[in-house]
Design a protein that fits this description.
Strand content of chain C: 15-25%
Structural class of chain B: alpha/beta
Distance between the termini of chain B: 35 Å
CATH topology of chain C: Glutaredoxin
Number of strands of chain C: 4
CATH superfamily of the largest domain in chain B: NADH-ubiquinone oxidoreductase 51kDa subunit
Radius of gyration of chain C: 15 Å
Number of domains of chain C: 1
Strand order of the largest sheet of chain C: 2-1-3-4
Chains: A alpha+beta (161), B alpha/beta (596), C alpha+beta (122)
CATH topology of the largest domain in chain B: Rossmann fold
Largest sheet of chain B: 5 strands, mixed
Largest sheet of chain C: 4 strands, mixed
CATH architecture of chain C: 3-Layer(aba) Sandwich
Structural class of chain C: alpha+beta
Number of helices of chain B: 24
Order of helices and strands of chain C: HEHHEEEHH
Radius of gyration of chain B: 28 Å
Oligomer: heterotrimer
Strand order of the largest sheet of chain B: 7-8-6-5-9
């Protein structure tokens, strides 16, 4: 999916980010906290945003790109309005979370790490979210679905359409 | 369907489904037919009733009678007594309504009896967002005692004598670590808390931070006093939003009370704590990688020595302990070394929290004295394996650990015994597996995890784990060759011996331990093209049994057109076309389709 | 906080306030609200208890959220610390069940045995 980063439309957000950078730039090890801010503000960290951070923190863009791509929480493409995370922690895996993931891939027609064309859903295979007692678990944004079953996928997706 | 007089609803939820449901449904339908009720009784699979622990559940309408824990051997009785003669089978009725002579408090329940709560003492008792309640339970008393009555050296000595060992994995003596940092020279020293709980299947750190955040903050301040540091950082996973929120509140409240900040307890001691959020990299649980990450870099491990206690965060002496280790500190200070050493074993005093998950009845957190037998954890506290299945293995130590088999149920669990068994304590995840879990696939699952999480710095881990994963994928898809098993083992030892950090050095453990204890399963995949647990898709086959009625329902659901046959005649499945989706098996009204 | 005495004083005061002191002159209700509890539906249960206790102006009843008690399987969990020092553990709670507990246990002192942990534990 190609996306043009629109500076005009994002003017407010850029302002907000710059304010955050200003606040944190003297803090030791500021880069990762600033990236968290950027991910929170824009929902992703495209090249244009990395340039802003690079200038603000006076760090080479290569270093910033290196950090962004190292950590799985930071993304270069926008997530969907609803980000579905299927927990692939061990407890969920032994209780067949792979089947749930396959079913969602089938229903949405996207692979893990992708976003649907309409921008509605994105799909992630997440690390353990620590709700192992309720395995298998999936999350849609902040909603947690506990003891989930592959047969409930279609119904679950319908709620968000 | 005018003739239908009764409906039997059967739970089709995930848990019941695995409890021999197919067999039971088949038997039920057979018996109904046998007693001539075929036109009067309809059997319908329904969604989950939400009482999974009671499954399989049958509800008979119009009476609305609820039967729980129905076994195949109970079917004849239900059909004959209830459906045919109209007499309810009391014996199988759901016992949701019970008398007064039962356990009403968790503290008296079987789950709780063998537990000793130190780390989880306040979890589920106090309100974590209210510092007063923590104080009401002796919170910050230890910090007060340390600052007003003890010297730094005395604090280090108490922790050293207590024998407390790091609860995050390796089991390094905490007091020793502190003494190194206390002796090291540096104009600033740092106290770090590892709350980057990355082991899939472990969630004790999250529970402590969500339920008792002050216990960690207090312990960090004590550690700061002991080594001479005034700044702490808690490195926490961004995946734990609630824990982050509660820590933020706790830090704020502690500052308001002057329990963090300057001149605490009028002792001249200053200490403050900051949160740093992880960003989803498992490697950051490794201490030097965690330090790199706090410094704002890619979380890649560094060579040791120098150890962080000498040269850590920003080149300064640094101690790093995990959440559970810290949660022990204030009670050791308050209750003393002798009390702490009276729990657990000689070499490993105290308790360990385990997260029980997977195929076990009582999923949850348990805190037990170190040295408790695995059998007690799984069967007495955990309530055993649900749905009448066989215990097969328990996986400890996450991607760094291994599987322990039923032969070792009587081993007393501590750091050393687990390593002897080819696993490790790790952070304390215990994932129980039953007969339906394929051990080769579990090894593949963990390797898939390590390949994904390898930071890429050193070659053995980056390339080696990838090659191991490829071999495992070959085996689980039925393409394994005899020499693959040899290669796999050789590669495993090379990676173990030559990787830079703990992640690489332990990454082959899941493979080595399953190869050791479940070689048969590997061989069945390679030499017989068979997955004994019936899990690996490519190795399963679907058949139509001989008494097919030819209703052709399966033909209409098969997404790839693999089923052929003339109506009212025997159908067959073309295994070359079949994608093992299982749709045919689901729809077949006569349960003629078999998975092998 | 400048001295241990100051801390001790706060401790004593709080113990009285949260119905956890030795005299126990009231009832304390805690609802497990860690990630797993919330995922299992603890939030509405907590809200309804808090709301109902407030609405009925029940005296000496403290309602609090708490962390994970470790029995994920039984979430949502509500525990009642009675004035006689006994604790009752209610499991698999729903809003409806919570209302019953308030009607029977909190208002009249009758434990609702069907919802306690013993009714579900095997």
């Amino acid at each position: 999916m190609m996306l043009e980063f629109d500076f005009e439309k994002n003017a407010d957000k850029i302002k907000e980010l710059k304010k955050m950078i200003e606040e944190k730039k003297d803090m030791k090890g500021a880069l990762i906290p600033v990236l968290h801010d950027a991910q929170g503000i824009f929902g992703y960290i495209p090249k244009e945003v990395q340039v802003i951070i690079s200038e603000g923190l006076n760090k080479p863009i290569a270093e910033i790109y290196g950090v962004v791509t190292f950590y799985s929480q930071f993304t270069l493409i926008p997530k969907g309005k609803y980000n579905i995370g299927v927990c692939m922690g061990t407890a969920c895996y032994v209780k067949d979370s792979q089947k749930i993931l396959n079913q969602i891939i089938k229903e949405l027609g996207i692979d893990v790490g992708e976003t649907t064309k309409d921008g509605l859903f994105s799909l992630e295979a997440t690390r353990c979210i620590g709700a192992c007692g309720l395995a298998p678990v999936i999350m849609v944004n902040e909603d947690v679905y506990a003891k989930f079953d592959a047969s409930e996928v279609a119904e679950m997706l319908e709620k968000y359409k | 369907m005018d003739g239908i007089k009764s409906y039997v609803l059967i739970c089709g939820g995930a848990n019941c489904t695995s409890a021999h449901k197919d067999e039971i449904v088949k038997k039920m339908k057979g018996k109904i037919k046998e007693v001539g009720l075929k036109t009067e009784v309809q059997v319908l699979p329904k969604g989950c009733f939400g009482l999974c622990e009671e499954g399989p559940i049958f509800v008979v309408y119009p009476e609305g009678v609820f039967y729980s824990h129905v076994q195949a051997s109970d079917i004849n009785e239900i059909v004959v007594e209830h459906l045919l003669n109209g007499r309810i089978v009391d014996r199988l009725l759901y016992k949701g309504i019970v008398g007064k002579n039962i356990v009403t408090s968790l503290n008296d329940s079987k789950i709780y009896k063998k537990q000793t709560r130190i780390v989880l003492k306040n979890c589920g008792v106090i309100n974590p967002e209210n510092i007063d309640e923590y104080i009401a339970y002796d919170g910050y008393m230890a910090l007060g005692k340390v600052l007003t009555e003890m010297t730094s050296e005395e604090v280090v000595e108490v922790i050293r004598k207590s024998g407390l060992r790091g609860r995050g994995g390796g089991g390094f003596p905490t007091g020793l670590k502190w003494s190194f940092a206390a002796k090291a020279e540096g104009k600033q020293k740092y106290v770090l808390c590892n709350a980057d709980e990355g082991d899939p299947g472990a969630f004790m750190d999250r529970s402590v931070l969500e339920g008792d955040p002050h216990s960690v903050i207090e312990a960090m301040a004590i550690a700061g006093y002991a080594i001479g540091g005034s700044q702490g950082y808690i490195y926490i996973r961004a995946e734990y939003p609630l824990a982050i929120k509660r820590l933020e509140i706790a830090i704020e409240q502690a500052r308001e009370y002057g329990l963090l900040g300057e001149n605490i307890f009028d002792s001249g001691f200053n200490f403050d704590v900051e949160l740093r959020l992880g960003a989803g990299a498992f490697i950051c649980g490794e201490e030097t990688a965690l330090i790199a990450s706090i410094e704002g870099e890619r979380g890649m491990p560094r060579n040791k020595p120098p150890f962080p206690a000498i040269k850590g965060l920003w080149g300064m002496p640094t101690i790093l302990n995990n959440v559970e280790t810290y949660a022990n500190i204030s009670q050791i200070i308050l209750k003393g070394v002798d009390w702490f050493r009276s729990i657990g074993t000689e070499k490993s005093p105290g308790t360990k929290v385990f997260a029980l998950g997977g195929k076990i009845s009582n999923t949850g957190l348990v805190e037990i004295p170190i040295g408790t037998k695995l059998r007690e954890i799984i069967f007495d506290i955990g309530g055993g394996i649900p749905n009448g299945k066989e215990f097969k293995a328990v996986q400890t130590g996450g991607p760094s650990g291994g599987c322990i088999t039923s032969d070792h149920l009587d081993v007393e669990i501590d750091y050393e015994t687990l390593i002897e068994l080819g696993s490790m304590m790790g952070s304390g995840g215990m994932i129980v597996m039953d007969e339906d879990n394929c051990m080769v696939d579990i090894a593949r699952f963990f390797l898939d995890f390590t390949v994904d999480e390898s930071c890429g710095k050193c070659t053995p881990c980056r390339e080696g784990t990838k090659r191991m994963l490829e071999i495992l994928e070959k085996i689980t898809t039925g393409n394994g060759e005899a020499e693959d098993l040899v290669k796999l083992e050789r590669l495993a030892y090379v990676i173990k011996d030559t990787s830079l950090c703990g992640l690489g050095q332990t990454a082959p453990n899941p493979v080595l331990s399953t190869l050791k204890y479940y070689e048969d399963e590997y061989k069945a995949h390679v030499f017989e093209n068979r997955c004994p647990a019936g899990y690996c898709h490519e190795l399963i086959q679907y058949f139509v049994a001989d008494d097919c009625k030819g209703c052709s329902k399966c033909v209409s659901v098969c997404p790839v057109g693999a089923i052929s046959g003339v109506i009212k005649q025997q159908h067959t499945i073309d295994d070359d076309k079949c994608i093992k989706c299982g749709e045919c098996l689901e729809i077949c009204p006569f349960d003629i389709i078999i998975k092998k | 906080m400048k001295s241990l005495e100051e801390l001790m004083k706060l401790k004593e005061e709080t113990l009285k306030k949260i119905n956890l002191d030795s005299k126990k002159n009231g009832i304390r209700i805690v609802v497990g609200m860690a990630t797993c509890g919330i995922a299992a539906g603890a939030k509405p249960v907590f809200s309804i208890i808090e709301e109902e206790v407030g609405k009925r102006k029940m005296k000496n009843v403290e309602v609090h959220m708490t962390g994970c008690i470790g029995i994920c399987r039984f979430e949502p969990v509500v525990e009642v610390y009675a004035s006689d020092g006994n604790k009752t553990t209610y499991v698999y709670m729903t809003e409806e069940k919570a209302m019953n507990v308030i009607d029977e246990h909190i208002a009249k002192g009758n434990i609702v045995y069907e919802y306690t942990i013993g009714a579900y534990e095997k």
